[in-house]
């Protein structure tokens, strides 16, 4: 596959090899050598690879939060297995180098030694960066695990980082919930996204292990709100805070947080099964009343266009949108659909929504919504919450720094 400028990832790799220098990163468990050099991965690479499908890792905020949604997403959570702070730092340094390289469309060196496994798994060699973003978040247990200040950083914990409390209708499976570190990997090419997760797993060998991984998709026409598996436009209300001031109000953590968290955000995750078979037997009128919006246009009851304001007096009392509105809070939603196995007893498909929202204060914004919805939402007849997580995503990374540095070296 070739970019606009006629240079493929393979050619970029050759270019990088000529211009950059290999940095040995021992102790990674894979004996990897990263073919990376910052000037290669940023300035040079942008002229060599199609610019508009590359999202830099570095910036004021982490990528993948207010970035327009890519088509594919992996959400993965890791458990840190090492007790050594310095080993953890090595892993995070390796991850950072790898993420910067991958976001710029580069690949780790395959190998100088054919007797060793290649450092990179290789499946992106001919692929473009595809808007790859990697967004990191830290769970409460990163700071304090079972009351234990595992890396001497308990005092660095951000203000609102707590697991989402148990809700009345929860069916949460701990095996797909929580974790010390999570990474949301998004790209417009599924293989590019999976490659990133897979190599993060490899680079964590000996220091961390994968706890769970979720895979999602969000198909839609560019510029239009994607539809969820109930066939409704999902994400319309994000429009309400789509401005720099709006993001400051809704998404970015502020002055009441430790330095490293200011400009970061809290990622809330809920894996929500959607009973698509029973939904598909529901009348259109009941489906629309469940949300309080038209299925085709996405307009709220009593309104004409998708983005017209919601008149609460026109909404069924227990409709999903009415309940969200009643809280007078906003969150930034970035959900992906998922499909999984068939239940052999019923023939029903396990499908649903990987609900992801970003907010500056989950206690104030998300939890009141979740509580109200769990108690009253018309949607409850069709959904079941099976996975859960809350992660603090630090502010964006500065070039030359590694992920977590401001916490671990404070
Ligand atoms: C606690 C927060 C929320 C959960 C959990 C949640 C689950 C969920 N939502 C849909 C589908 C739709 N949600 C819509 C709007 C909407 N949802 C939330 C919050 C949660 N949703 C908010 C804050 C809003 C915005 C309300 C507003 O201000 O108008 C919509 C309508 C269109 C839109 O704005 O996106 C749909 C459709 C599903 C299917 C689901 C669980 C599976
Ligand atoms: Fe919703």
TrEMBL record:
Reactions this protein catalyses: heme b + 2 H(+) = protoporphyrin IX + Fe(2+)
GO cellular component: a single term: cytosol
Superkingdom to which the source organism belongs: Bacteria
Cofactor mode of binding and number, as noted: Binds 1 heme b (iron(II)-protoporphyrin IX) group non-covalently per subunit.
Keyword Transmembrane helix attributed: yes
Record's keyword annotation contains Ion transport: no
Compartment annotation: Cell envelope
SUPFAM superfamilies attached to this UniProt entry: Dimeric alpha+beta barrel (SSF54909)
One Pfam family of this chain: Dyp_perox_C
Residue spans crossing the bilayer: 12-34
The protein's role, per its UniProt record: Involved in the recovery of exogenous heme iron. Extracts iron from heme while preserving the protoporphyrin ring intact.
Family in the record: Belongs to the DyP-type peroxidase family.
Protein name: Deferrochelatase
Upper lineage: Bacteria, Bacillati, Bacillota, Bacilli, Bacillales
